[in-house]
Design a protein that fits this description.
The protein is of the alpha+beta class. The chain has twelve helices and 18 strands. It folds into three domains: 86 residues, NAD(P)-binding Rossmann-like Domain (Rossmann fold), CATH 3.40.50.720; 141 residues, 2-Layer Sandwich (D-amino Acid Aminotransferase, Chain A, domain 1), CATH 3.30.470; 71 residues, Aldehyde Oxidoreductase, domain 3 (Alpha-Beta Complex), CATH 3.90.1170.20. The strands form four sheets. An eight-stranded antiparallel sheet has the order 13-12-9-10-11-14-18-16, sandwiched between helices.
């Protein structure tokens, strides 16, 4: 018998496809209800009152475990409410309060010998010398992060300041279990604020991987894994960091399914969401035809990029466009949807022999999408 799972968050398409690859039957609700989500999910609902509308929406689904994707980790009250009526396959609201508190996280990681940029609370603003960034505490995907300079204004919402560190932006995906230290699934390079995809500064706009880990980075990640054990992070989760060749500077922990997971799944043909399910339901693991091996083995490189609208536009027939130009897309809006400037249009995918090949392919696919995404 197939195992249903309820998936909720801002955008659930990627996780729904991961669920299908793992033999799970997804029931989804999010803010978009994209065309390909409608085909993938057994049932879906679009929620206008996000995130609180998710509570009523999930009540319409059959009894089943549930999981959340970004950025519901910023709403522990909603997580707690939904968890009253169905088992949570994810990090609970109590642990979320710890892991999403930048001061608590920094203290815990530094105690484990992990490097974390210096942090200042909102009431202690640093000099406006461009060596700091200001970040909302409830941010996700780089939303509203900006350099702290003479022109910057602090957001009205709760925020903090973080020392700006330099290095390659990367993300490590882990699988945690209650009885053991988390295991590393793989590392991807993050695409942040790329002009080719019309992404704003600091905005996440894609991933490329898997990245080969050298001795230095392997040592840094091993230390990080030990330090993370104290947080009881069960299931899949991600850690964003900047690697300068010697030090992995930990920027944020995303205690849920992260966007780069499907890149690793494509590269390894491994259903990582099956390992996630097994972290909460031992019987699910026992029903698998083979154990989930989370080691990255593929030599090919895969990538995804989120293409953002440069201006307000009306969505054309993107599926027909993709067929005519032989590109792969996902997160497809309905024909005629109005997409406002800075909002995502769709996601494009690529595969190649190197990161450079993949990035070039992603840029070419983005050009095709943006060429028809003009004003209404």
């Amino acid at each position: 018998m197939s195992q249903p799972i309820v998936i909720v968050g801002a955008s659930t398409r990627a996780a729904a496809m991961s669920a299908r690859r793992a033999g799970l039957v997804p029931y989804c609700c999010d803010m978009f209800g994209d065309v390909d989500l409608a085909r993938t999910a057994e049932q879906f609902q679009v929620v206008d009152d996000y995130p609180h509308g998710l509570i009523a929406a999930t009540a319409e689904f059959p009894p089943a475990p549930w999981m959340y994707v970004g950025a519901l980790e910023n709403s522990p009250n909603v997580v707690a409410e939904i968890s009253k009526s169905r088992p949570l396959w994810g990090v609970g609201p109590g642990e979320l309060a710890r892991i999403r508190n930048p001061l608590t996280l920094r203290a815990a990681l530094e105690a484990g010998g992990v490097s974390v940029p210096t942090i200042r609370e909102s009431q202690e603003p640093p000099p406006r010398d461009r060596s700091w960034v200001v970040k909302p505490i409830r941010s996700a995907g780089g939303r509203s992060i900006r350099i702290w300079n003479a022109d910057a204004t602090a957001p009205q919402e709760p925020h903090y300041f973080q020392k700006h560190v330099f290095g390659e932006p990367m993300s490590a995906i882990w699988i945690g279990a209650a009885t053991e230290a988390p295991r590393l699934c793989g590392v991807t390079r993050q695409l942040i604020g790329e002009a080719a995809f019309h992404a704003r500064p600091f905005t996440y706009c894609g991933s490329i991987g898997p990245i080969k880990i050298d001795v230095t980075l392997n040592r840094e990640l091993a230390r990080l894994g030990k330090a993370l054990a104290q947080f009881n992070l069960a299931g899949l989760f991600g850690v964003d960091f900047a690697f300068d060749g010697m030090t992995a500077w930990i920027l944020e922990v995303n205690p849920r399914y992260s966007a780069s997971i499907e890149v690793l799944e494509r590269a390894t043909a491994t259903p990582l969401l099956a390992a996630h399910a097994g972290a909460f339901d031992v019987s699910f693991s026992e029903r698998l035809s083979r154990p989930v091996d989370v080691r990255v083995k593929s030599d090919s490189v895969h990538g995804k990029a989120i293409v953002f609208a440069a201006t307000d536009c009306v969505c054309s027939d993107l599926e027909d466009l993709a067929k005519r130009h032989s590109i792969e897309i996902a997160d497809i809006p309905a024909l005629g949807s109005v997409i406002h400037a800075t909002q995502p249009i769709c996601t494009v995918f690529a595969e190649g022999r190197s990161e450079i090949d993949v990035m070039d392919s992603l840029k070419k696919s983005a050009e095709v999408v943006l060429a028809v995404s003009v004003g209404p």
